[in-house]
Amino acid sequence: MSAPDVLRYPRARPYWRIAVAGFRRQATYRLAALGGLTANATFGFLKVAVLFAAVDAAGGELRGYDTALISAYIWVSQGLLGSVNLMGRSDAADRIKDGSIAVEFLRPVDVHLSAVCAEIGQAVFTLLPRGVPSVLIGVFVVGMAVPDSPWPYLLGSISVLLGIAVSAATAYLVAVVGFWLVDTRGVQVLYMVVSGFLAGLYVPIVLFPPWLLAVAEATPFPSMLMYPTDVLTGRVDGVDALVHVGAQMWWLAVVLTLGQILTRAGRRTLEVQGG
Amino acid sequence: MAEVRARVRLASPEPGGDLRAYRAVLASRIRSQRSYRLGFSLDLGASLLVGVIELAEVWVLFHSVGELGGFTFGQMLLVFGLADLAFSVADLVFGHCDNLPTYLRAGTLDVFYLRPQPLLLQLITSDISLRRLARASVGLVALVAGLVVNDVDLGPRTITIVILALVSGVAIFAAMFVWAAGVQFFLVDGAEATNAFVYGGRYASSQPASVWSRPVLVLFGFFFPMTFAGFLPMLLLLDVAGPDWLPASLGWWAPAMALWTWTLALLSWRLGVRHYQGAGG
User: Fold this and answer.
1) Given CB 3.0 to 4.6 Å as the disulfide criterion, which of A15, A267, A272, B142 pairs with A99?
2) Residues B84, B144 within the same domain
């Protein structure tokens, strides 16, 4: 991987390397990627059945979605699912639970940022074995809308990266709860259930009734899956697309700041037993 | 040390000792889950929310179109109620089979082989998650609401259909977990592939099957008979003629389909166990 500009800034260098290591690490789990793709595709076909029927029932157009666009929504969002962390599980959570996080506090890198960067690296790799084939199924097997100008692809790529970063940084927040709670499984399941629904995994959030849409937009979850899908499929363009990307940047700043604060507070309460 | 002694005593072949062993194991699981109070109540809350949000997914879709595949949200409440209640109960008892890949990778499954109890029963009793009860309550409420909204007459026919559907549904979903566990012995890292059918099946079971394409119907209508857990019993309860390939009267065959799924499950489990060679140690 060629060294980009970040390497000129010595303080950013380790984090870039950690992200690249995460990317490489993920490359070894080929069977897991295939399993994930099977699940994505099966759910994709089930969604095609229901959502196509919904568009038909609405007379060919449902809140701006026609069949081709809803197909694009299904296959792009299924493709992103492997990379966007909607499960709330992370390596950081395991390390906080078993106490090995204490070792990381001794290293000369920021614990929070290095954990988030490693996860972003893994997630970007996962786009290859799970994201690309899912979109190919959409294009060649089912048929879906594809934008014909370069703009959605360009802005969409940025939006996908931001979505991955927001999800990695938010899943990290679930992990840091482990500094205060012995068992974080309840919090993790809570995150898993709420995030999928509000991120627009089951139906696009514009189909929500207005009050529920407002609830979703007040959380970082649409920034993880719905906004990247909207921008990449060209459902929103022009100024609206920029507003989506702006919202993603805002949420990334919020969850990263929270992560820094909680990591510092957690460090003070950390107790490791044994020796 | 006391624990080891207890286990040896439990495993001894006294009359009735077998059942007592399982009862003791289960009681200890339940006690252990209740000991972390905050964690447990969070678990319960999260589990309740799982059910509520699954229902909300169905509702949101019907909210925006009114009718889907020829069915209303009121009718789908029955499908969701029956299927989700059955899934939650099966998940409560058999859901732990999902953790098999973790045991396989860590080599801890070998410990189970040392104990004089059937492997599958040990796997099931190694973690019964009480928190999943909260989720079952959502299915139950949806089922009751469905019966009320559709003004279903609570005669012996209705009760027979509901019991038949729930018993067969629990058996079908339980068999899915066991089938998946058998396949895990071969997949290990690729375990997510079985989620497509276990959790994809749950998702399919709460949909109006009339919208499915032919391949989806073959897979989730018959091979993994998800329609028999919710959709077909709903047709029977409301006396509605079903779509092509899914006439309402097919619903009476639910027990036969449960038997079919268990045949698949036990075959898969047997092949899996035979394939397993241990993980060293």
Assistant:
1) A272
2) yes
Give pLDDT tens digits for A164-181.
999 999 999 999 998 888
Q: B-contacting residues of A 242-261, CB under 8 Å?
A: none
Nearest residue in chain B measured CA to CA from A182: B39
Please report whether residue B42 resides in a domain. Answer: no
A38 in contact with B at a CB cutoff of 8 Å?
yes
Chain B residue at shortest CA distance from A33:
B190
The amino acid occupying position A169 is: A
Q: Is residue B178 part of a domain?
A: yes
Query: Tell me, what's the pLDDT at A274?
Result: 60
Residue A25 φ/ψ region, left for φ over 0, alpha for ψ in the -120 to 50 degree band, beta for the rest: alpha
CB contact under 8 A, B68 and A52: no
State the ipTM, two decimals: 0.86
Please report the residues numbered 7 through 46 in chain B whose beta carbons come closer than 8 angstroms to any beta carbon of chain A: 36, 38-46
Question: Cα(B44)–Cα(B135) distance, rounded to whole angstroms?
Answer: 8
Looking at the fold, whether B20 and B59 belong to one and the same domain comes out as: no
Is the Cβ of B48 closer than 8 Å to some Cβ of chain A? no
pLDDT digits (tens, 9 = 90+) for B113-122: 887 778 888 8
Total structural domains within chain B: 2
3-state helix/strand/coil string of A55-120: HHHCCCCECCECHHHHHHHHHHHHHHCCCCCCCCCCHHHHHHHHCCHHHHCCCCCCHHHHHHHHHH
Is A63 inside a domain boundary? yes
Q: Is residue A6's pLDDT more than 90?
A: no
Residues B82 and B220 in one domain: yes
pLDDT digits (tens, 9 = 90+) for B74-108: 999 999 999 999 999 999 889 888 888 888 888 78
Domain span holding position B8: 1-35
